[in-house]
Amino acid sequence: MKDEKGILFVLSGPSGVGKGTVRKRLFEKATDLKYSISMTTRNRRPSEKDGVDYFYKSTEEFEALIAQNELLEYAKYVNNYYGTPRKYVEETLAKGSDVFLEIEVQGAMQVKQNFPEGVFIFLFPPSLEELKNRIVNRGTESEELVLNRLKEASKEIEMMEAYDYVVVNDQVDHAVEKIEAIILSEHLRRERIAKQYKKILEAD
Questions:
Q1: Binding site annotation covers 20?
Q2: Which of 16, 73, 77, 123 qualifies as a FRET site for 150, CA 20 to 30 Å off?
Q3: Tell me, what CATH number does 161's domain have?
């Protein structure tokens, strides 16, 4: 059955909702998912590693990739670019492996245009107050940037309707369990299984 293409899973949500934490916890567990590392022009935080958390690029490098159509999606967010390398995603899906993206909301909307068959999961904060606390407690942003991120977050939450699933990130482990359940249920969808069995019956 491995000649089936993999499924693209996209985890997205407002800045500060904990996308990175949830994704890391998901990948600490035994999983066949392949993680597509995003590129960004933002400064590396002290705990982050190049090629693990992001590929860190200069603005010039990033704009050259945009011009060459090498990105599946990209967005400029609070003066920094974020994007997903196209080649890795397409090649991995073609091999039959599932790919997992963790990206900003604007980027997720572009992926939806390019890959409408993807599965889109919106990570939701327990409350806006909690979201504000998470952004402030990071200690990596100025007050002005915190306010910008919160304004942006309110707009992004309104875009929730474009997603297939919503997971509230009240506790990281609970959020991960829900995402695992989504992945399993997508593999059990009738139309996916019917396609595979049709091939088996034709082979007989």
A1: yes
A2: 73
A3: 3.40.50.300
How many C-beta neighbours within 10 Å does residue 57 have? 18
Cα–Cα distance measured from residue 202 to residue 204, given in angstroms and rounded to the nearest whole number: 5
Distance of CA 89 to the CA centre of its chain: 12
Q: Which structural domain range is residue 153 located in?
A: 8-36+97-203
Asked whether residue 14 is marked as a ligand-binding residue, the answer is yes
Q: In whole angstroms, what is the distance from residue 148 CA to residue 172 CA?
A: 25
Does 139 belong to an annotated binding site?
A: no
Whether 21 is covered by a domain: the verdict is yes
Measure Cα distances from 119 to 3, 100, 134, 154 in Å.
20, 10, 26, 23
Query: Mean pLDDT of all residues in the chain?
Result: 88
Please write the tens of the pLDDT for every residue from 157-182: 888 889 999 999 999 999 999 999 99
Structure tokens at 133: 């606390």
Amino acid at 12: S
Q: Is residue 71 part of a domain?
A: no
Output the six-digit token pair for 189. 């969808």
Residue 16 among known ligand-binding residues: yes
Structure tokens at 204: 């007989």
Q: 6 a known binding residue?
A: no
pLDDT band at 1 (very low <50, low <70, confident <90, very high): very low
Cβ-count burial 20-47 (b if 16+ within 10 Å, e if not): eebbbebeeeeeebbbbbbbbbbeeeee
Count: domains in the chain: 1
Is 64 a member of any domain? no
